């Protein structure tokens, strides 16, 4: 299980209708997210169906053990989720969004402070469901955790989507009596 081969980080000019110069567009899209800013995630690369995210985990995000500090498992999970979400995003049309329906993580080794890299891949995409997987490695390439998730694809606008215009979302639905 020791070391794994981490795929080369690549950039793509166009991802399912979303234009990217490999630097600004994707970084702005992902890094507007509060968690990306708060934790200091960096998107190292993406291509169709793949995304790589890096994070420098400090001891502030750890709990003490007799063997030294260990990164809290929820933060390991969040990094894997960010990589899989990024991979899923590369397969979406401009009018689609997604929600995570299922997420599971296998912690293979204790994750220590330092540079961590998560690479997410789309395993399969259907019209409404995206299955993803991810691996987390440390700076030496040691495999620390793996993850799988199921994403549900929704329309980006309208009542079924998350981007409902504010004038439509004016309160609870009216019943048949008005």
UniProtKB/TrEMBL annotation:
**Keyword Magnesium appears in the UniProt entry:** no
Cited InterPro entries: HotDog_dom_sf, PAAI_dom, Thioestr_dom
> Which terms in the GO cellular component ontology are assigned?
cytosol
Q: Which residues form a coiled coil?
A: none
Query: Sorted alphabetically, which SUPFAM superfamilies does this protein's record hold?
Result: Thioesterase/thiol ester dehydrase-isomerase (SSF54637)
Q: Does the keyword Cell membrane apply?
A: no
What are the record keywords, sorted?
Hydrolase
The family database entries (NCBIfam families) matched by this protein are listed as:
unchar_dom_1
Q: What is this protein called?
A: Thioesterase domain-containing protein
Gene source species: Micromonospora globispora
């Amino acid at each position: 299980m020791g070391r794994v081969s981490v795929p080369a980080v690549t950039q793509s000019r166009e991802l399912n209708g979303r234009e990217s110069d490999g630097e600004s567009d994707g970084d702005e899209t992902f890094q507007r997210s509060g968690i990306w800013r708060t934790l200091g995630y960096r998107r190292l690369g993406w291509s169709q169906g793949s995304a790589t995210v890096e994070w420098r985990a400090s001891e502030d995000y750890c709990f003490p053990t007799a063997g030294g500090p260990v990164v809290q498992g929820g933060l390991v999970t969040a990094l894997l989720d960010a990589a899989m979400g990024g991979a899923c995003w590369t397969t979406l049309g401009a009018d689609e969004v997604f929600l995570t329906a299922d997420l599971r993580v296998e912690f293979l080794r204790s994750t220590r402070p330092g540079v961590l890299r998560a690479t997410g891949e789309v395993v399969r995409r259907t019209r409404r469901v995206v299955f993803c997987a991810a691996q987390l490695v440390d700076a030496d390439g040691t495999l620390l955790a793996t993850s799988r998730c199921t994403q549900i694809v929704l329309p980006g606008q309208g009542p079924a989507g998350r981007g409902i215009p504010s004038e439509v979302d004016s309160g609870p639905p009216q019943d048949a009596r008005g």
